[in-house]
Design goal:
The complex is a heterodimer of chains A (440) and B (141).
Chain A: H1 2-12, H2 27-56, H3 72-97, H4 101-131, E1 143-144, H5 149-169, H6 178-182, H7 185-209, H8 213-227, H9 234-273, H10 291-315, H11 317-350, H12 359-362, E2 370-371, H13 375-403, H14 413-439
Parallel strand pairs in A: 1-2
Chain B: H1 2-10, H2 13-35, H3 37-42, H4 44-66, H5 75-102, H6 107-112
Classes of the chains: A mainly alpha (440), B mainly alpha (141).
């Protein structure tokens, strides 16, 4: 029957060919959906890589949000901004479909503004990371993932560079100009030098020469925590102060032992010098805690005996050689005592509560390398994922700018629809990025 | 009839507002879950699973209502299901990598891996210990 009818129709009228697309949507929309389905996989790849790196990092090393200056509520606010923009672009589409041109433009403009707010907040967030030396890669990144001697060397190098920079600033007379003094350059120089000797070199010596590797590691970690604490808690600060108190006791005890050794050496030297008439005065007994006057007295005795040593050399060359060795020993021990007393003096600065949030926080100019376990890995994933998302937002904003030039009536609704689909996808990606980057 | 079908294919203002409010509530839930210290300390995996569930719910709301997939014809499955499966597959295929390569550390890998901090696990050294040893003697050299 149908065959007959078709044949019949064919005889009498033109065959009406009806174009039947395989997918009943406009080509533009189809293309956009195909593009979005590739985008789903693109971001899934990034998120998958993040999951591997995040959960594959050594247990307990992934930085907490505040350690890397990530503020949860700012992220939540950005989520809110994107959700609002998703609503406004839907309303723009609805307005265009019902030919309310002015409304469509208004809603789309509002979407553009909200997108700009999102990017602005993102810029603020990036800036707060850059300011603290958190970059995706070297040489800008100040993050070290291990508290080892390489880290200590990096701190030393940074301080050395800062010192030579400050020294180079000085005028021909070797003084800072009044403007530089006003800007606090002499204080900076003093701070850098004090840190170099009393923190970096002290820690270096302890870690390199100590016979307990755990103690050496703890010393480096204490230094790292003083520069950039990972936990801003009172317990962490109390621990830091307790460590210093214990160290003070230990160093004082060692200083007492050293003082005794120096005294013994001086005595030995005294007996050797008996043969010459102008012998050095006997070193005075000093309290071990007050190491500085003791060291000064000891070094004084060394310089006064230098004259008598020449005389002795003529009389008894053997005794002179012995005294020379003893003087050398005393000199070394005195240098050790000096370093100990200098470190003990520096304890006042080390236990100053203003450093509770770290040296980098107090001196914003210093920018010392920081120890953040898995910090570089965190920075790489964070900047990669939010960066790609931000690029998508930027593309969306450019498209909004172009679409805004049209008269947005029902005939142009399909453009707005496709733009909206893209923008919703950007929102969708952020819906997943926000919890995994800010809250995990 | 025509008005009804129009309503069917686009969703109404009330519907959009309801979705908007639902998205805000869900965001607040994931924020509260993420900031719950007890959940973070006791069962972080539950916390993460909850946040992922919330995110999936939000994504579904956006796709269904804002992207109009609720009202589209069956072509929507052709374009979204394979891509979603592929992305799920992609993420799941990386999971064995965590188990095989990262859970077991070779000595070589340990040398370069990030260090967990000792913080608080070590007590301050007792006074007088190693009194005869001077770690500062290498300083300034």
């Amino acid at each position: 029957m149908t065959a007959h009818a078709d044949a019949h129709d064919g005889h009498h009228a033109h065959i009406k060919l009806e174009y039947q697309p395989s997918i009943p949507i406009p080509n533009g929309k189809l293309c956009l959906w195909l593009f979005l389905s590739t985008e789903i996989m693109f971001f899934a790849g990034l998120i998958g890589a993040y999951i591997v790196l995040r959960f594959g990092s050594p247990t307990g090393t992934w930085p907490a949000p505040h350690t890397v200056h990530l503020v949860e509520w700012i992220g939540a606010m950005n989520t809110f901004v994107l959700i609002c923009s998703s609503v406004t672009i839907v309303l723009a589409l609805e307005a265009a479909r019902s030919n309310q041109v002015a409304f469509a433009k208004g809603w789309l403009f509002l979407t553009l503004i909200l997108g700009c707010v999102f990017l602005g907040v993102k810029m603020y967030e990036y800036n707060s990371k850059f300011k603290h030396g958190i970059y995706p890669s070297r040489p800008h990144s100040l993050i070290y993932e291990r508290a080892d001697l390489i880290y200590v060397q990096a701190v030393r190098l940074k301080l050395r560079n800062e010192i030579s920079k400050l020294e180079a600033m000085k005028g021909s007379e070797g003084d800072f100009t009044p403007a530089q003094v006003k800007a606090g350059m002499p204080e900076r120089l003093e701070t850098c030098k004090a840190f170099l000797t009393n923190v970096v070199e002290w820690t270096e010596a302890k870690a390199a020469r100590g016979d307990n590797p755990l103690e050496g590691k703890a010393a480096i970690e204490n230094m790292a925590a003083f520069i950039y604490p990972l936990h801003h808690s009172h317990e962490a600060w109390d621990y830091h102060v307790a460590t210093l108190t214990a160290e003070a006791k230990e160093v004082q005890a060692r200083a007492a032992v050293l003082q005794k050794e120096i005294d013994a050496l001086n005595e030995e030297k005294g007996t050797l010098q008996k043969s010459v008439p102008e012998s050095a005065p006997a070193p005075t007994e000093t309290e071990p805690a007050e190491a500085t006057p003791a060291a000064a007295a000891a070094s004084g005795s060394v310089s006064t005996t230098a004259v008598s040593l020449v005389r002795l050399q003529d009389a008894d060359p053997d005794a002179a050689a012995k005294i020379g060795i003893i003087d050398e020993k005393i000199g070394l021990l005195n240098a050790q005592l000096d370093r100990m007393s200098s470190r003990l003096d520096f304890h006042k600065t080390l236990s100053d509560p203003k450093f509770e949030h770290g040296v980098n926080e107090v001196y914003s100019w210093i920018n010392l390398p920081m120890f953040i376990p898995s910090g570089n890995m965190w920075a790489s994933t964070y900047f990669l994922m939010t960066g790609f998302h931000a690029i998508h937002v930027l593309v969306g904003l450019i498209v909004f700018g172009c679409v805004l030039t049209y008269r947005l009536d029902a005939s142009k609704a399909h453009i707005l629809e496709n733009t909206g689909l893209y923008w919703h996808f950007v929102d969708l990606v952020w819906i997943f990025l926000f919890p995994i980057l800010y809250l995990f | 009839m025509a008005a009804h079908s129009k309503h069917e294919s686009h969703g109404s203002l009330g519907q959009y507002l309801a979705v908007f409010v639902a998205l805000l509530v869900l965001t607040a839930i994931s924020f509260a879950v993420g900031n719950s210290q007890s959940l973070r300390e006791n069962s972080p995996s539950v916390m993460m699973a909850m946040m992922m569930a919330v995110s999936c719910a939000k994504a579904l709301l956006v796709i269904l209502f804002f992207m109009h997939l609720k009202w589209e014809a069956n072509w929507k499955y052709v374009l979204t299901v394979p891509a979603s499966l592929m992305s799920l597959f992609l993420v799941l295929m990386l999971v064995p990598d965590i188990g095989r390569r990262y859970r077991v550390y070779t000595e070589e890998r340990k040398l370069n891996a990030a260090q967990p901090i000792l913080h608080h696990s070590t007590t301050p050294p007792a006074s007088g210990e190693h009194a005869d040893h001077d770690p500062a003697d290498a300083a300034n050299h």
